[in-house]
């Protein structure tokens, strides 16, 4: 694999890293000039650490069956990350004890100081070793799932490569594909349940060490969720059940009629009707990149320059293959001032959306490069996902580059808007499931499955008939890597999706102004609160019941317009 990241530090010599931290700790920070200079130097060093860690993580995700990449990644988890966490806590102490804090521009440093105070309150030395074990277990999840393949009519295929068959007009093909996908995960159910049990135990210890009631509260503090509470998440889930579930059920009933089935089964959800073929916006990933770059050129030449540069430097790993971890992500490389996109393409419409989505993250990362403080470039997920989800919607007016047929273009846009409605119940189910996991840490594996099933039945559409396949639904959460690797990272998608719909509504009316607001908001990073970032984007940080009701009415209106074409 091409070396795509810059390694300025020798991670195999941890003493050298400790020495650099000690040098930072020894420097004077008595005046405002000394403190601001020190912060910039600490940020540069943090960037060097981050680029190396990210590079090794990406290597492992791209080659999760490689002993070499696994060894490097696990070495970082075991030896480097503990050093970073301990010394970052010491740097926080040094910053917070400096008399020069009061001399800083409080309007600019307010969020920075608040974040550092929060980190100091949360840090516990005894949690460092617990996090090493936590990371090891998350890695173990990828080892079990990254290598999953199935025999598809004599050919070995990855789980990602089977996704295209879920849209096939032949019902037997769809059923065969979903059975192979679910059975592949069920073959690992005992291992994945054991990992989850251990993770919950470790995470609860971390919360207790930090004098917090449970791990959910711990993660809300770690994620600096100052703008909303766990109770707000429960209200959001109820609002989705009330205003999104009925709309999803209506859409699925219409789809059921369209594909002509008496009973709507799990393998019918993405099916195209007889006589149609699944949407194919591109033939290969080269075409995907080229056409995406044209879209970005029309929006802002810098956006196109980014994707071209990343492509030339081997920072786009888009194709699915054996030994590659599932899923997709974008990771920032702060020294290179670029990003890496990882995904598992199967030449589907979803793949087109994934690249546009991840490029939203890349554009966000690029707009933040002017911020000198690394902490301000480390943005909350609610604004990070706003960047990516909004990009999906703002590019819709150029999708004719991918779809020459007006009928296919209309289908693609309709699928995108219906996807919002289909996703929101799933998003709050994953979130509420995690709340329950850590509010009730002594539950059994079976109770865990039953809770997921119960939430799915309550919040999601009742149109799908799971009879005979209840075990699939009970274990469906095994396929959500976030629950294992980045706990409580899912409500962010929901909140950001609602923000993205607001932004798209503005874009439909004033595209140039909305794009300018989008770039302005993203350039703020985390130097402002979430509410202020959303305000800069021309929208509200609001996921109240009334907001959800209004946004769903807008989406329904846009779908009705497409139906008339």
Task: Describe the structure in your own words.
The protein has a domain at 14-123. The protein is 66% helix and 4% strand. It has 24 helices and 5 strands. The strands form 2 sheets. A 3-stranded mixed sheet has the order 3-5-4, with helices on both faces. Strands 1-2 form a two-stranded antiparallel ribbon. The longest helix has 34 residues, at 406-439. The two termini are 47 Å apart.
Question: Layout of SSEs?
Answer:
Layout: H1 14-26, H2 32-62, H3 67-97, H4 106-122, H5 125-146, E1 149-152, E2 155-158, H6 159-162, H7 171-186, H8 189-209, H9 215-222, H10 230-243, H11 245-259, H12 285-299, H13 301-312, E3 316-319, E4 329-333, E5 338-345, H14 349-367, H15 374-377, H16 381-394, H17 406-439, H18 445-459, H19 470-474, H20 481-485, H21 491-509, H22 511-523, H23 530-536, H24 545-563
Parallel strand pairs: 3-5
Antiparallel strand pairs: 1-2, 4-5
Helix pairs in contact: 1-3, 2-3, 3-4, 3-5, 5-8, 8-9, 10-17, 10-24, 11-17, 12-13, 14-16, 16-21, 16-22, 17-18, 17-21, 17-24, 21-22, 21-24, 22-23
